[in-house]
Each structure stands twice: as structure tokens, then as C-alpha cells.
Amino acid sequence: MLEIRSARKVFYKGQPDEKVALDGLSLSLATGEFGIVIGSNGAGKSSMLNAISGALILDSGQILINGADVTDMPVHQRAAKLARVFQDPMRGTAASMTVAENMLLADLRSSKRTLRQGLNATRLASYKERLSILGLGLENRLDTRVDLLSGGQRQSLSLIMAVGGSPDLLLLDEHTAALDPRTAEIVMQATVRAVRALKLTTLMVTHNMQHAVDYGSRVIMLDAGRVLLEVAGEEKARVTVIDLIGHFSVKTDRMLLAN
Amino acid sequence: MGFIQEVLTSFVAIMPVTLAQSLILAFVVLGIMIPFRMLNFPDLTSEGAFPLGGCVCGVLLAAGASPLMGVAAALVAGFAAGCCTAFIHLRFRIHTLLAGILMMTMLYSINLRIMGKSNLSVFGSPAVFDWVPFARPGFPASKIIVAGLLALVAFMLLYMFFRTEKGTAVRAVGANPDMAEAQGINVWAATIGGVGLASAFSASSGALMVQSQGFADVNMGLGILINGLAALMIGEAVVGKQTVWRQLLAPFAGAIIYYQLVSFCLAAGMPPPDLKLATGLFVLAMLALPSLKRGRGPAPAREAIRE
Q1: Given a cut of 60, is residue B149 above it in pLDDT?
Q2: How far is Cα A96 from Cα B176, in angstroms, rounded to an integer?
Q3: B141 touches chain A (CB under 8 A)
Q4: Do A108 and B180 touch (CB under 8 A)?
Q5: What is the residue extent of each domain of chain A?
Q6: A53, A77, A82, A97: best to mutate for the B interface, most B CBs within 10 A
Q7: Which of B 182-201 lie inside 8 A of A, CB atoms?
């Protein structure tokens, strides 16, 4: 379960270019819920995700994951509770390390790292099995350095790394936006399958209105650092792309093109 | 022909001495490689940590402490110095190179303070090299054996460490700090510990060098960094750096080859004052090689010195 209580964050406070990124934003996502976050550029989507992951420290407000207050926890401590897939495939993986080593890093996200050997036969076998679900052949490339993989393969790897260990909260930050349409579809399908199978509490930021309509149990539209609109339940099942776009105060080309 | 023979004779004659020296200095090269390659933290601390280890060890030997004690104290002092550099970088967001320059400049005064004077003779004090059976003390053979064994132990321990869960995490910090943090790795702890460890190696090299040459000098670190970097470049060119095994082997192989090369150049009559220029040009060439191969095109981002 995720709860954000009146989160506020102001950049360049007191300066001419002061920018209110989060303006008392409150949001709650029940366990197992799949929330889709939409909103125009600058609406506060990234700031919200960064605040949840700990990369951004709030001026005021609270963030709770499964009832535990994580507001003052540094990123590496929150990692035990949440996993994140970034828009840029480069950011979510360690390029100069192998596929297996990357899997190991994610595998130990919520446990204490010891001086025992990292990659052993048991782990390698389980990584092989988990990667084979994608059907991209990654399971045969465990010893390949990640920088030799394509963007789509890297992003798929990031996804498998993130959903492994069933995090309390999964954050998806436009994670298919940098991929070609076909690969984006593969990654999106893999995401939906994993979220359903593992019943993950998920928050996905997207600019793709079709995704917002097709997936998820709740659509959250942000504007100027607060929640402008929430659609859930039966209403969510009926919502269309046109309905959603109608709520944008500024219709950017990017959103229209997404249709 | 007479000239070549002469050069070869004098080169071969000092080969064992050079080998002993290079095995001791291999620890500095290791101390340069770990931050640079494993942590992506180009670090200059070794230029100060090497004489720091030497001064600490020299003072202790002069006071009658055991040589092992001298090396141990150098390790601790070096570790502290490395931790400071990493902390300066992390806490104040000062560039790693600048943090290293600050640290090595401050260490110069600290080293002078530790010794009380600019050099200190410990000739005749016991050294770790004396403990080798069957080898006459003071001869290169005993130094080669002790330094070689220490190098082997350091190599094996590091190789095992970088394959553990913790060691993999440390490498991840170097590969992608943001990702490492998101995977629950404490980037601060890994960086401070890693750079500290590296400086501890550099300092231990200084301590061994003092025991080998019989005196400590505050200026003994002058140019050690560029020599170490050159050795690392040679090592990486020869054994490669694609795997942890190769990357760890490179400092040792590089040190041995580099110092023999220097000794050969000197035997061939290269004036010693030109040595630093030659070394600098060599390092420049090795660093420039990838961009020359790539051909013309936009200059890589400034941070690209990291690769």
C-alpha cells in the first residue's frame, strides 16, 4: 500500500524562477492496485516518483509504504520496499557488468549483502529461468556485458530485475517510452503479466493515453503538482482516450501523437 | 654491437633489483586501479598516501617498533587518508580529482609533521625482508620473495572479495551509482571503504619501500602517480581489463613490465631528467589511443576520462 500525505516540494525557493513541483499532493493506492499516472509535462509526475523513491526530499508531507513512514529514509534503505524501472534503459542497469551480475544486484535488493560468493549455481539457474519468461533469449546470455544488449533487452532485464523479489511497490517511469513500438509492446505485456501474477502494487507514469485506458485499475491525472482527477472502478473501465485528453489543460503534441 | 651488449649487460645486471622494486610499487598501482576502474573514482590520493605510509613506518622503525608494526600502521594511516578523500568528494560534491589534490597537498604537511624533518634514515633497522630463510638480508632475492608473496595474497583476497555479494555491490557503485543506490547499496559506505582500501595499499607500498631502501623521505611520492598510471596502462594493454581477474592482474603485470622498461631506457642512456616527460607522453598516448582509433568526431564528454 502506498500513501502520500500532502506532499510539498518547491524548487529554487525564494528565487525568481521558483517552481512548485508538488503542491500538497495526496494520493493513496491500495495493496495490489495498478495506478496509472498521467499529466502534462511539468505536472509533477517525475517529482512525485522521485519523492516516493527517495531521490527527492520533500519540504513537507509524508510518504508511507505499507504503513511504514519512509519520508526520511535514504534511497538505499527504501530499496528494500520498492523497485523502479526508469525511462532510460541505461539508468536501470550496470552497463559494464554481466546480465547475471545485474540480476544478482537486484536479487539482494532487500537483503543484507554478505561475504559469501555472489553468483552460485542455484542463483544462476533461477536467473536463467526468470529471464526465459521474456522469450528474448537473455537466459542464454547471462555472461554477456549489459552494454552489449539492445535498449529493449536492457529494459526487459530492468523489468525482470525490478519485479523479482515481489517489491511492496513497483514504480514504472515511462518505461516503454524510449523503445520502438514493437519492443515497447513486448515490455508492456511482460509488465502486465508480472504485475498480475505477483499482485504487485504498481504506479506507472505514462504519456500514452491508450495505455492509461487499457491497463490499470485507477487513473490519476496530475496538474500543477496536485491530483486533478482520479478515475477508478467501473468508471475506469468505461473511460476512453478522448475523455482523458479532454481533461488536459494544455494539450501537448506528444500526447496527441500517442494516439 | 659493443653498445648494445653493454646496454644489455647493465640492464640484466639490475634486473633483480628492478623486479624487487616493481613488486613493492605494484601496490601503489593497485591503489590507483581500484578507485579508477572499480569505483569510477579517479583518485590522486596515492601521491600523498605513499609517502604517508613511508613516513609512518620510518618513524616507527626509528623508535624501535617491529617492521610488521610499521606496515600495519601505514595501512591504517593510508586507509584514513583515502576515506578523507572520498568523504570530501561525497559530502561537499567536490570533483574526485580536486578532492585528491587537496588531500595530497595536506598530506605533505602531515607527513612532515609525522617525521619532524624531511628525511629519516632507518638503515640497519630490521625489515620484513630479513625474515626470509636461506636468503641473505638486503639482497634482492629476499625482497622479491616477500613482496611477491604479499602481492599474491593481496591479489587472491581481492579476487575473492570482488566475487562476493558485497564485492559485486562495490563494483556496481563504480558501474552505475544511481542504479546501485536503487538496488539498496549504500553508495557512501562502498565509496569510502573502497577508496580507503586503495590508499591503504598505496601506504603499505610506501612502508615496504622505506624498509627496502633504508630511509624515509617526504618527497618519495613525487611522480609516483604518473608512474603508477603508466604501469596500469601497460598492464591493461597486456592482460586486458574485461574480467575482474584480468583487471586485478593488470596492476601487478603492469608494474613489473613498466619498471623493467624504465630500467632498460636508463641503461640505454636516456637522461634521468627526461624520464617524467617520457612517462607522461606514454600515458597520454595510451589514454588518447581510443579516441584516435575512433577517428575524428566530437570530443567525448569531460567525464569520459573515466573510460
Answers
A1: yes
A2: 9
A3: no
A4: no
A5: 2-257
A6: A97
A7: 182-187
pLDDT at A250: 52
- Taking an 8 Å cut-off on Cβ atoms, the answer to whether A92 and B182 are in contact is yes
Task: Choose from A228-242, B65-79, B275-289 the range with maximum mean pLDDT.
Answer: B65-79
- In chain B, what is the straight-line distance between the N-terminal and C-terminal CA atoms, in Å? 43
Domain architecture of chain B: domains with CATH: 2-306 (1.10.3470)
Q: Coil, helix or strand for B80?
A: helix
Q: Which residue of A has its CA nearest to B159?
A: A117
Distances (CA, A) of A168 to A67, A74, A202: 11, 17, 9
For B229, the enclosing helix (H) or strand (E) is: helix B224-239
SS (H, E, C) chain A: CEEEEEEEEEECCCCCCCEEEEEEEEEEECCCCEEEEECCCCCCHHHHHHHHHCCCCCCEEEEEECCEECCCCCHHHHCCCEEEECCCCCCCCCCCCEHHHHHHHHHCCCCCCCCCECCCHHHHHHHHHHHHCCCCCHHHCCCCEHHHCCHHHHHHHHHHHHHCCCCCEEEEECCCCCCCHHHHHHHHHHHHHHHHHHCCCEEEECCCHHHHHHCCCEEEEEECCEEEEEEEHHHHHHCCHHHHHHCCCCCCHHHHHCC
Quote the pLDDT of residue B304. Answer: 43
The minimal CB distance from B166 to the residues A80, A91, A114 is found for A114
Q: Which of B173, B176, B178 to mutate to test the interface with A (most CBs of A within 10 A)?
A: B176
Asked whether the beta carbons of residue A79 and residue B182 sit closer than 8 angstroms, the reply is yes
Residue type, B105: T
φ, ψ dihedrals at B14, nearest 5°: -95, 5
CB atoms within 10 A of CB A233: 9
Return all residues near B106 (Cβ < 8 A) that are at least 6 apart: B48
Please give the pLDDT value at position B303: 46
Environment class of B46 (CB within 10 Å of its CB; exposed 0-12, middle 13-18, buried 19+): buried
- A61 contact B CB<8A: no
pLDDT in tens, B23-61: 999 999 999 999 999 999 999 999 999 999 999 999 999
pLDDT at residue B105 tops 60:
yes
pLDDT band at B306 (very low <50, low <70, confident <90, very high): very low
* Residue A245 pLDDT class (50, 70, 90 cuts): confident
Q: What is the pLDDT of residue B140?
A: 86
Closest listed residue to residue B279, CA positions, set B261, B296, B253? B261
Chosen for mutation from A50, A53, A76 (greatest number of chain B CBs closer than 10 Å) is A76
**Over 90: is that where the pLDDT of B121 sits?**
yes
Under CATH, which number does the domain A2-257 receive? 3.40.50.300
Q: Is pTM beyond 0.90 here? A: no
